[in-house]
Structures
1.
Amino acid sequence: MTALPILFYLLAGVAYAVAFVRRSSVAGRRATALMAVGVLAHTFMIGMQTMAVGHLPLVGTSGAVSAFVWLLGITYLYTEYATEERAMGVFIAPLCGALQWLPFASGAPAARPRVLESPLFTVHVGSLMVAYAAFALAAVLGITYVLLFKEIKAKHLGFFYDRLPSLHVLDAMNARAVKIGWVFLTIGLVVGGYWVGTARQVAPEDARLQAMSFVDPKVVATILCWAIYSFHLYVRRAPGWSGRRSAWLSAAGFAVVLLNFLPVAYFFSRSHNF
C-alpha cells in the first residue's frame, strides 16, 4: 500500500510527459486521473497510518516529507482545475514520486513523544507543509517562466511556446503561490515559536526542546526562507522585479526549502529530530 502513491505519481509523470510532448488532450486527461488516484492512495495511506499510531503521521522528517508530497499533489490538482492548464504536471508529478520515496524507504511512521501531543504542534507542522507545497509550485512556475522567456527572447518560438501558458499567466500564478506560501509560513513560524515556549514547560527535561534556538540550523534555514519570500513579495512591486527576476527568486527560495527539508533536517539539526 505504501508504494502505491509512488507508482501512481510516476505513472502520472509519464502520462503528463506524453501529453506535454504530443499536446494530446486524451493523454492529459489520463495524466490528471492518475495524479488524482495517486493523491487518493496517498490519502488512504495517511489515514491507515493515523489509525495505526493514533495520530497524524507528522513526526520525524519522513512524516513531514510525506505530508508535503500529499499537500503538493492536492495543491497542484486544485491549480490544474482552476486554470485548466496541465503543463505543470510534467514537473510536479515526478517530484512527488521522487520525494515520496524517502518516507517509503523509512518504513513505519515514528511514534509521537508526549511533548508533541499539543494541537499547536499539528498547526505548526501543517502550516509549514502547506507553505512548502505552495513554494514548490511557485518554483516550478518560475522555472517554466524562465524557459519560455529564453525561447521568446531568442525568437525561436517552438517547443515551450506552443505548450506552456503565457508569461503573464505564469507570472501571476507564481505571485499567487508565493503569497499563499508566505502566509502559511508566517503562521507556522509564529505558532512554532509559541509552541516551543509551552512545550518546555511540559517537558523541561527534553534535550531537543532545549536545543531549539535561533542558531539551530533548521530554524536558521526556515527564517532564511521567510526572509527570501518576504523580499520576493516586497520587490515585486518595484519596476523590473516581476517576471524573470521573480521567477529566479522563487527557485532560489525553494532550493533553501529543499536543503532545510532534507540534509539540514537529517544531518545537522539537534532539535527537529523527533
2.
Amino acid sequence: MRVILILALIILIGCKNENDFDISKRQNSLQNREVELIKLDGTRISSNELSGHIKRLIKAANVTGITVSVFNDNEVVYNEAFGYSNKKDSTYLHTDQIIYGASFSKAVFGYLMAQLVSEEVIDLDKPLQEYLEKPLPEYKLSKEWRSYKNLKGDKRYEEITGRMCLTHTTGFPNWRFFTKNFDFDREGKIRFIIDPGTRYSYSGEGIYLLQFVIDKITGQNLEDMAQERIFSPLGMDKTSYVWQDRFEDVYCNGHTATEEVIKKDIEDEANAAGSMETTIVDYSKFIKEILKHTENGSEVTNLLFQENKRIKSKVQFGVESWDDTDENDDIKLNYGLGWGLLHSPYGKAAFKEGHGEGFQHYSIVFPDKGIGIIIMSNSDNAESIFKELLEISIGDVYTPWKWERYIPYDL
C-alpha cells in the first residue's frame, strides 16, 4: 500500500512539473541559455538581466503581457514572452502565440510594394487613377462603406500616387470615421482633410487605397500575394492578413488599461493597413530578412528605406499633429515606404509601430550595426514602458518617444 501511495505521489508531482515546464519552456524559450546582448554603443547586458528588467517594468506599469525579440549581428539573440495571454483565465503568453499585428501590417505591405516597384509592376510616382479602367469613385466595393463614391466631383483623388499612400501624404484622415481633429464621424464618408502631397498625416485609408489599386493591377489579392512572396518563403506559417481556423487555439487576447480581457475581433478581409495576425517568432523572421537584404545592399530595401517626406509635426496623432516643431530635426525624422526613418550616430534607423485596442507594438532596426528590437504586447499599458525598454535592451535613445506619445508610466 505504501509503495502504491509513493508511486501515485511521484506521478502527480511528475504531471505538475511537466505542466510547469511546458509553460516555462513556451514562455521563456531562450532564458535557459544566458547570452550577452550588445547595445548600439558597444556596452552589454545579459539576457537574464534584461528579462529581470522587463519583469520589473511590466509589474510596475500593469502590462498584462509582452513579447520581445532582440537582434545582434542581424540574428535573433533574445526572444522571450512575459505575462498573460488571457488575464482572466490566468493563461500565460508564449512566443509562438498569435498576436494581432495592427500596423505592423503596413511594414510588411511596404516591403511587398518595394518588391513590385523593383519589378516595375508599379511606378510610385504615377497617379493611381492612371492604373484604373474607370474613375475611382465609380468602383463598387464588396463593402459599400469602403467605396470612394463620395470623392466624385473632387478631382484631387486624381493626384494621389503610390508614394503618397506609403508616406502618409494622401490628405485622407487615418480612417474615414475620424475628423481632422480626431473626433468620431458617424457618417464615415471618405474625404480629404488636406491637399494630397502637402503634409505628413498618418492614414490607413491611403494604404488601403493602394492595396485596392494593386489588386486591380495584378489581379491577385493581398493575402495570396503576401503568402506567395513573403510568408511562405520565410516560413511564417502563423502569419496571415485574414483569420485562419488554425489560429483558433493559439491566439492571445488584448487587454484594457485596467487589464480587462477584450473579445477577439476576427478579420475576414485582408487590410494592408492593419489586419495581419502574426507571432513574435514569425515577425522576427521577417525583420531578419529585412536586415539581411539591407546588409547586401538590396534594391528592395534601398527603395523601402529611401527618405521621402521630412516630418515636422509635434506628435504623430491628435490635434497637436497639426503643430510644427524642430524637436526632431536632430534625428531628421522622415518616412520611407510604410516605415518611419531617423538618423543616429550609428547610421539610419527604420521603425514601425502598431496600435490597436488592447495591443501596442514597436520595432526598430539599425542596419549599419545589425541591431534591432521587436516589442509586441497585448496590453493598453505597454507603450508606457517602451522608452525605458528600448534604452535598456539596445541602447536606443533616438526613437522620438514624445512624437510617438510613448509617455513613461512613472511620469
3.
Amino acid sequence: MDRSTTRNLRSGLKRGVGSGIKVLAAASDRVRRPPAGVTVLIYHRVGRRAAVEMDLDASVFDAQMAELAASGRVVDLDAALAILAGDAPRPIRDPIVVTFDDGTADFAEVAVPILERHGVPAVMYLATAFLDEGRPFPHDGAPMSWAAARDALASGVVTYGSHTHTHALLDRIDPEVAAAELDRSIDRIAAETGAAPRHFAYPKAVAPSAPVAALVRARFASAALAGTRRNPYGATDPLALARSPIQAGDAMVWFRRKVDGGLGLEDRLRGAANRVRYRGATT
C-alpha cells in the first residue's frame, strides 16, 4: 500500500470517528439542552491551504457567514459583553460572535473580504511575534504582514485582540515572563494599528495559573478559553469566555448546532485529548 493510500485511509477513519463523536454529542444535547446566552465561534484559517481541521474551504466559510448575516444574530464582542452583563437589552434570539486566532495571511486575503461582503464583524487575536518576524505558524501558516493587518482593519469589520507575543502557553511560564508576553503584544498591536487591544484569547485555549490569570484580568476586558457551549446571560465571567471551534469537518448541520450552543461533549473529549497532546509544549 503506497503512502497516499495510507494517508487517505487514515483521513477517512479520522473523519468517521469525528462524525460518530458529533452524533453522540448531538444526542447528549437532546438530554441536556444548551442554556440561553451568547455563542462565540472560533476560526483559525480560511482557504484550505493545509489539510488540517482548522483550515476551512473559502466557499464553506462564505456559506456560514451568509447564514449568520441572514439570521441577524451577529454582534461584535463589545456588544456581546454588554448583553451578558445586563448593560444592554437581551435580544429575542441569542447572539453570535465571530473570532479568529493567530494572524495568518489568509485572514486578510480570504476571510476579511467575505466578512466585509456579509457585514459580519470579527475579532482577530494576534500572536504578534509572528507578524513582526514573518515567522510561519505550524502547518505552513504564512503570517499576515502588519500592512495587511492595517488594511483589514480599514474594512470596518475587524477588531484586534491579543494572543500573546509568541503564542506562549500561560499555564507553564513564570508570571514575569507572562507579563512580558502580554505587554509586548499589547504594545505591538497599539504601535501598528493605533489602538491597544481590549480583548485576549489564551493560546490553545489552555487555562492559566492563578497569578497569570490575575495579570490578564488587569489588562483586558475579556479573555477567551475553551468550551463548546453558550455563555449564559448574567452568569458569565468575561475573563473566561467559552468559544466553539468551527472545523473543516463540520457540515452545515454541525455548524448550526455549534451556533446554537451544542456539541459540548465533543469539546470535552477534545479537551481531554489536548491535555495529553500539549503536555510538553510551550507554544
